Amino acid sequence: MFTTLLILLLITLVLFVHFATQYKVFQWIYDTSSGGRRLKVNYKLIVGALAAFFLILIQPYDIIRINAGAIGLKESLIGDNRGIGSVKLVSGFQVYNKYFERLYEIETDQKNVHYETLGVIVKGGFSCKIKPTFNYKVKPENANQLFVELRQTFKQGGLKAVETTWLETAILGGVNDVSNRFAVDSIFNHREAFEQQIGLEVNKRVGKYFEVTQLRTNILPPESLQKSIEGKTQAIQEAEEFEYRAKRAVAENKEKVARAQGDYEAALLEAKTKEALSQPKMLELYRAETERTWAEKGVSPYGSNNTIIVGKPDQNLLLNLKK
């Protein structure tokens, strides 16, 4: 980029000299001796421009812009730090010497990583499958130290090479070490605590250069434990269903008993009522009440137009007067 700018600047300068000054690159002039025109070439200007052009091609400087969301690293190839080139953090537009310096760019925004299914050994010797996922980002203030420590890996493939080698080893090492401290049933009974311990262990190992967040192991139980869990779940469901049926049966029985008790009490009341009404005294009372009602209405079993002669309470005389 810097070379291109210099070339454009050189061309602009030559055109300016040619058109704005008396020093033309070439021009037609009138030759008085021959009486005609001849071409005059400014060889000094042409040689000077060509020399400047070649100097531009071999000049050691270039310019580059560090993108937003990234941090730049300027590496010195001279080896001024006990034989190891120094690395400085830079940003924005940077002019550097192509022969003695190198510029690298490290992205500092969040990146998401998905690992393939792997196996880990938990406490007790059980083997579990994991498929870790997590987010990470580079800590900008320590990016130069990361580069110095992993210089060859970074030069081979940039941050991606670091992610698939050093970072992957640290992540999986942390997952394995924490898994070895948890029993298999404890992992699945306290999944949140298990994941938190892994996050702490991983950030302890890589926290100098990276910040790891939202780490999930997606751990799966061993096949034997999976079957045991399924059997236990089924047994719990069957027990709950049995308990529900038992409670329902008890409720139905109570309802039947209540109905039978009600029917019994109703039948008993009816029987007592009939027994009471069948007594001679009750029949005599009922008959007297009926006769009194008839007498008040002027009717009797013997017809209408009846007259009652009142005497003593138990010696009333009923006459039937025919017209």
Question: Can you offer a commentary on this structure?
Answer:
The protein has 323 residues and is an alpha+beta fold. It has four domains: 1-59, no CATH class; 63-107; 110-221, 2-Layer Sandwich (Tetrahydropterin Synthase, Chain A); 290-323, no CATH class. It is built from eight helices and 16 strands. It has helices spanning 2-20, 43-58, 143-149, 151-179, 184-189, 191-206, 223-277, 280-297, and strands at 26-31, 36-41, 61-65, 70-76, 87-90, 93-97, 101-107, 111-114, 118-121, 127-130, 133-138, 210-216, 299-300, 303-304, 306-309, 317-320. The strands form seven sheets. Strands 5-4-7 form a three-stranded antiparallel sheet, with helices on one face. Strands 8-11-12 form a three-stranded antiparallel sheet. Strand 1 and strand 2 (36-41) form a beta hairpin. Helix 1 (2-20) runs antiparallel to helix 2 and helix 4 (151-179) packs antiparallel against helix 6. It is elongated. The chain starts with a helix and ends with a strand.
The gist of it:
Helices cover 51% and strands 24% of the residues. The protein has eight helices and 16 strands.
Salient structural properties:
single chain; 323 residues; alpha+beta; Tetrahydropterin Synthase, Chain A; 4 domains; 3-stranded antiparallel beta sheet; 24% strand; disordered C terminus
Shape: elongated
Largest sheet: 3 strands, antiparallel
Order of strands, main sheet, comes to: 5-4-7
- What is the assigned CATH homologous superfamily of the largest domain? Band 7 domain
Question: What percent of residues adopt helix (DSSP H or I)?
Answer: 40-55%
| Total of DSSP H or I helical runs spanning 4+ residues | 8
Calculate the mean pLDDT score and round it: 79
Low-pLDDT segments: 316-323
| Helix/strand class | alpha+beta
Tell me the β content. Answer: 15-25%
Number of strands: 16
User: How many structural domains can be distinguished in the coordinates?
Assistant: 4
User: Which class of the largest domain in CATH terms?
Assistant: Alpha Beta
Under the CATH scheme, the architecture of the largest domain is 2-Layer Sandwich
Q: What is the rounded Rg?
A: 56 Å
